[in-house]
Amino acid sequence: QVRLVESGGGLAQAGGSLRLSCAASGRSFSNYVIAWFRQAPGKEREFVARINWSDGNTAYADSVKGRFTISRDNAKNTVYLQTNSLKPEDTAVYYCAARTILTATYVFRGQGTQVTVSS
């Protein structure tokens, strides 16, 4: 079974940076897509970024493009989300999720990590 554990959240000032980590385990992820989502209080969960494990192809939400970078470390089975130039509106619980390359539905396994950006 896929297991995903998020970490790295915290408090940052506007303009600051945080690096989030998603440790994946439970199977080979060579045919998987790993994504980051976030959910702010009172709002729906939204897509942030995703990476294809096999070829490293990435995609981003327009709201974070140019500020956030998703990457993977195959040896550590970990996906990172480098968040730069943080804004107060980036405040949310960040979750990582996984899906196979053949499906459209993401599976969420972790508890999320809180990111709070102060102005």
Q: What is the residue-averaged pLDDT?
A: 96
Quaternary state of the chains: single chain
Tally of DSSP helical segments: 0
Classify the helix fraction into a percent range. under 10%
How does the helix and strand content classify structurally? mainly beta
**Main sheet attributes: strand count, strand direction, barrel closure:** 7 strands, mixed
Instruction: Give me the count of strands.
Output: 11
Task: Classify the beta-strand content into a percent band.
Answer: over 45%
Order of helices and strands: EEEEEEEEEEE
Tell me the distance between the termini: 40 Å
Query: How would you describe the shape?
Result: globular
Radius of gyration: 13 Å
Low-confidence stretches: none
Give a concise summary.
With 119 residues, this protein is mostly beta strands.
Describe this structure in words.
The chain is an all-beta fold. The chain is 0% helix and 54% strand. The protein has no helices and eleven strands. The chain has strands spanning 3-7, 10-13, 18-25, 32-39, 46-52, 58-60, 68-73, 78-83, 92-100, 107-108, 113-118. The strands form two sheets. Strands 2, 4, 5, 6, 9, 10 and 11 form a seven-stranded mixed sheet that branches. It has a four-stranded antiparallel sheet with strand order 1-3-8-7, with no helix packed on it. The chain is globular.
